[in-house]
Amino acid sequence: MCGIVGYVGSQEAEPILLEGLRRLEYRGYDSAGLAVVHRGRLQVHRVAGRVQELREEVGAVSPAVVGIAHTRWATHGPPTVANAHPHVDTARRIAVVHNGILENAVQLRSRLQREGVALASDTDTEVIAHLVAEQLESGTATLEAAVRAVLQEVQGTYGLVVLDVQRPGELVVARLGSPVVLGVSEGEMFVASDVAALVHHTQQVVHLGDGELATVRAGSYRTSPIAPVAGGAGEVEASALSAQDYDLGDHPDFMHKEISEQPAAARRVLGGRLDDRFATAHLGGIRLEPRELRGIRRVTFLGCGSAYYAGQMGASLVEELARIPADAEPASEFRYRNPVVDPDTLYVAVSQSGETLDTLMAVQELQRKGGRVVGVVNAVGSAIARQCGQGIFLHAGPEVSVASTKALTNMTISFALLALLLGRVRDLSAADGRRLVSALLDLPDRIEEVLRSEPEVQAVAKQFAGARHMFFLGRVRGWPVAREGAQKLKEISYIHAEAYQASELKHGPLALIDSSMPSVVILPDDELYAKNLSTVEQIRARGGPVIVVTNADVPGDLADAVLRVPRSEPELDPVLLTIPLQLLAYHVALELGRDIDKPRNLAKSVTVE
Ligand code: BG6
Known about the structure:
It is an enzyme of class 2 (transferase). Catalyzes the first step in hexosamine metabolism, converting fructose-6P into glucosamine-6P using glutamine as a nitrogen source. It catalyses: D-fructose 6-phosphate + L-glutamine = D-glucosamine 6-phosphate + L-glutamate. One of its GO terms (molecular function) is carbohydrate derivative binding. The active site is at residues 2, 604. With 609 residues, the protein is of the alpha/beta class. The chain folds into three domains: 3-225, Aminohydrolase, N-terminal nucleophile (Ntn) domain (Glutamine Phosphoribosylpyrophosphate, subunit 1, domain 1, 4-Layer Sandwich), CATH 3.60.20; 248-451, 3-Layer(aba) Sandwich (Rossmann fold), CATH 3.40.50.10490; 453-609, Rossmann fold (3-Layer(aba) Sandwich), CATH 3.40.50. Helix content is 35%, strand content 22%. It contains 18 helices and 25 strands. The strands form five sheets. It has a seven-stranded antiparallel beta sheet with strand order 3-2-4-1-10-9-11, covered by helices on one side. Residues 229-243 have low confidence and may be disordered. 6-O-phosphono-beta-D-glucopyranose binds next to helix 9.
């Protein structure tokens, strides 16, 4: 076993840390290290040897008053200085000491390497430092929220202490399967993996519970569940946005920033959740055993606005991959229609904010009727996340702009993971599973490719910004894409936009087509390609302008405008086909001088009736 010691207070931290390690020496180790924050920098000392060698390596004591320390008994990687804790991220902002084993360290390491992170050790622990730093860089407001979000992605056991050089007044501590105890003293706090390291400082100890996390400051500590659970007083409040979340960087507005964050957000929602060995998904936040997953006879997605349309994309994915009936319904309707709740249905409540009242009320209605519901939510600690008590966090980072983009994309990707999991406990073959896994791993790069086509989309937006109405048309997989595209245009440009199933066009809406009614047609290169192509021709035959969004090799003169996206696997194409529509709505609204992030009459999350 390894030893952990942490300190935050007003005394010099290094002697306390070294003395604590010495008292834990009996636990066996092969290397040791400590990190303190001094003059705004992390000072890290590590040796592949005994605590006494560390003491000698530290030398003259620094005046630092906060720090963490560790003695290591190697589990991942040989006992070398490079593998000794504390581990830090590339920018040396975050330091971590960890007892336990991360079971999905391999996936997380390869994901970080794909993101270009240079890993400095062979250990599992190092990934936590990088992931926490990534969370904070992506705008997560507090160290506690960043650690909690990362812990949704890791699988395994941990006794963990995290230190952020930018927050030298606190330590965040977490425990799952490996003991951690807090020592409470006047104006200072101690952390250790064993009371032995504390007892000569204080007799007031708090044994952190399994699945608990704590923020520890010199004069206080606050514990909360790692995975927010339903109800219960004194819950951690949803982390409010902090000043840095309003940091636009070099983006003109949040919507543009959040559209551009989609590749990184997609990597986060996939992190630690794909198992290419068994060609399936790991959704640690959903506590359903394989037998229970097999017992699910239907999946119903409930959400509002874009979350509802994402739910429709989710329903397609579940039907295609798991071959069980699935559908989506506006949560706002569901809650009022005295729904017939089926005990064998899995209900999925979808919400970026986790605060939309209609969706929260639908969850409560379901739970009153014995329905089984999981939450797919972005905001950790939000009401819907707590009410559901289990589910999938989106890890999109705070989404500020009213029009949902990166959260929407992460919702659809989360549903692909759920559909893959449900499929692989049924008849989806390993080969098919591997096909989806590799396509999902590839998706962030494909999203990046779509984003590079922004100038073309901007030109099309200029061409059509004068329209007073617009149709969005799609079939089957393309239908929810059309609905989301119409939603985006309505929300931020105020142009009337209507989505129709392309097959319905001839049964009425075609009457509206003339040169003043442009149509966007979603044209995936799939089994309905010819049908969608004839829809394009039907419209053009009546003088209707057409914008085609496609991954097929269509001729440039097929339509008045062609927005091209790369192919993924057919089931995942809706993720890529949606993104040009985000950019189209964005640039039309810009052309019209609209308030991009705060469109009139709307709210980011409607928490009232
Ligand atoms: C609406 C927003 O108010 O709420 C939409 O205008 C959003 O953009 C919908 O999709 C649902 O919000 P949430 O937070 O529940 O996903």
